[in-house]
């Protein structure tokens, strides 16, 4: 199978984005697709129950240094997505990525450039990135 790259996806999005050409439409669709992703995750907890969330304040011992933080922090997520919820969330994330890519195309920004720059920034800042 041939290797896939961001330019392939950018070209596909450019080819098949028909209705939402306006930057305003794209901004709204990005926000809507993000909300639908959030809703799909929420429904995995509240409707399906395949995952659950047990959230509390993240512990931050005063003696811990930045190297130790990963040991203390949690995603608060327990369980594993069932096949149905996983499929729905992948679909919603895909739509979100589609509209983000369309926004990039409209603004003349390469998705690959964004990914590379963010990757370099995270690597450079390392633990000081704190994301």
Spatial ordering of strands, largest sheet: 1-2
Number of strands: 2
CATH topology: Helix Hairpins
- The parts where pLDDT drops under 50 for at least 5 residues are none
Largest sheet: 2 strands, antiparallel
CATH class: Mainly Alpha
Give the integer mean of the pLDDT values.
88
- Written as H for each helix and E for each strand, in order along the chain, the element string is HHEHEHH
User: For the CA atoms, what is the radius of gyration?
Assistant: 19 Å
Coarse shape: globular
Number of helices: 5
For the termini, the CA-CA separation is 34 Å
CATH architecture: Orthogonal Bundle
Whole-number total of structural domains: 1
* Amount of beta strand: under 5%
List keywords for this structure.
5 helices; 5% strand; single chain; Helix Hairpins; 2 strands; 131 residues; mainly alpha
Topology (SSEs and partners):
Elements: H1 6-16, H2 23-48, E1 51-53, H3 69-72, E2 77-79, H4 83-107, H5 111-125
Antiparallel strand pairs: 1-2
Helix pairs in contact: 1-4, 2-4
Describe the structure.
By secondary structure, the protein is mainly α. It contains 5 helices and 2 strands, in the order ααβαβαα. The protein has helices spanning 6-16, 23-48, 69-72, 83-107, 111-125, and strands at 51-53, 77-79. A two-stranded antiparallel sheet has the order 1-2. α1 packs across α4 and α2 runs antiparallel to α4. The radius of gyration is 19 Å and the shape is globular. The relative contact order is 0.18. The mean pLDDT is 88.
């Amino acid at each position: 199978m041939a290797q896939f790259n961001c330019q392939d996806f950018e070209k596909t999005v450019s080819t098949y984005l028909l209705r939402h050409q306006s930057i305003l439409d794209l901004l709204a669709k990005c926000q809507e697709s993000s909300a639908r992703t959030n809703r799909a995750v929420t429904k995995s907890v509240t409707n399906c129950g395949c995952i659950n969330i047990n959230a509390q304040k993240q512990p931050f011992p005063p003696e811990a240094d930045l190297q130790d933080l990963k040991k203390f922090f949690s995603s608060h997520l327990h369980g594993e997505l069932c096949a149905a919820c996983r499929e729905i969330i992948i679909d919603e994330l895909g739509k979100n990525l589609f509209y983000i890519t369309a926004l990039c195309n409209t603004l003349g920004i390469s998705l690959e450039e964004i990914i590379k720059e963010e990757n370099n920034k995270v690597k450079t800042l390392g633990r000081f990135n704190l994301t």
